[in-house]
Amino acid sequence: MRCAVAARRRARGWATLLAGALLLPASASAQDAPAESGRARVESLRFEPLRFDPPAPSEHEVLGVPVFLLEDPSLPLVDLFIRVEGGYARFGRENYAAATALPGLLRSGGTTELPPQALEERLESLAMQTSFGGAGGVISSSLNIVTDALDPALELWWAMLTRPRFDTTVVEVWRGRQLEGVRRRTDDPAGLAFSEFNRLMYGDHPIGWEMTADDLAPDDLSNARLHALHRRIICRDNLVLGAAGDVDWGTLEPRLRRLIEQVPACTESVPDAPDPTVRQAPGVFLIAKPLDQSTVVAAHASDLRQSVDPEWFASRIGNSILGASGFSSRLMARLRTERGYAYSAASLWTTPREYDGLVGATTRTGSGTTVAALQLMLETFAEMGTTPPAQSEVDDRVAEFVNGFVFAFDSPAAVVARQMTYRATDYPPDWLERYVEGIQAVTPEAIRAVFAAHLDPARMTVLVVGDPERFDAALESLGLGAVTVLDPDEAGGPTPSGPSGSPRSRR
Hints:
With about 500 residues, the protein is of the alpha+beta class. It has helices spanning about 1-10, 15-20, 40-45, 95-110, 115-125, 150-160, 170-185, 190-200, 225-235, 250-260, 310-325, 330-340, 370-385, 390-405, 410-425, 430-440, 445-455, and strands spanning about 60, 65-70, 75-85, 130-135, 140-145, 240-245, 285-290, 295-300, 340-350, 355-365, 460-465, 485, 505.
């Protein structure tokens, strides 16, 4: 085990091999350098053009399951990945709790052969690092192991994935934690604001769902429900596998074949997640709580999708300039540096490939500057659509994006995991090359144009969690319509009138 830990510490050096090559002047060696110093010496240096060719995994197939492999024998470590189509967004609200719990229970709920405690002891004895997680549409898992323990680790990992026990004690512990989270949901103003904003914008859709006590009835997490859902998801047609590190295809292929043979073919395909209907009408919503600070979220729907269109690349650089780049962004400069309204502010511009996203911003500000901060956010939005940023501002952001590109390849494992995602989401084969080229082609005018086309302050849905008795002005003064007051104790349930509904208005 000590050997495995030491090896993992050394594994981080792969990024240095990619990004830290020593650049020497092309014209002369150090011994032949003229006796020149200072600025003139630095400016006289000349270098060969730096070229970076991203490493690419080889692609294989075992019994119909795609497998990506990137060999790296420099350290005796192997990383394995699996991506499975089938997250909570695919199976309806009645399965929300079970599908949400599934990844964690695969990790901690035991296998048919090993109860939870014995499983943990076996993982420790093999020095295995493994994780299970889920998103709206997928479940994923990873395994990191020393090469000498590959065979027993693979067998145990596969048992966790395909032969889960769903120990009732572990299930009940998970359920209890979720119920406690429901009870304390309104204690965190920021978390409440973000989850409630999603509910407002997406309504009764998985993006807008928030776990409630009704979702956590014992029958919703029964052993029969969990096993039925598991059989529906963990079947051969839903799998994509990846491997990286000290293993070659001749070694890996027969082992994967033996394991995949144990997984049945899917009897029916996993349903697609439903496309959301995103709220379009502007409005202002308030969750009144006696707080010293207000949490503010303001955004509206955006139909800009992730693609290779120049407009999308302009939105990435533009969003960074607006508020996604920390202290150097416009929103931070306006709200924090110039006015002192807030410690932090950030923009958001989500661009899913298959449905509308959101464009807007969020901040936390003192109760007495709530409306002033909101008004300044709206003014900054408008400015982005009327005045192009300076060329130097664009150049700085483009350099950040391009220079940071190498860190998408800081280890063989990262390369494989990324390629698996690209394949599953149907990216074009030359996506990485087109990404860099598209970012480098962004101009100030392109940024102004994309904001003018896709960001409209008058369309904003605004949610404020704070104390209206201490606001500096009425929220109605924003000019976005009447204020709708939401009951924090009822937040998280279905939106009464759908994504465009208004539960109660304050006139």
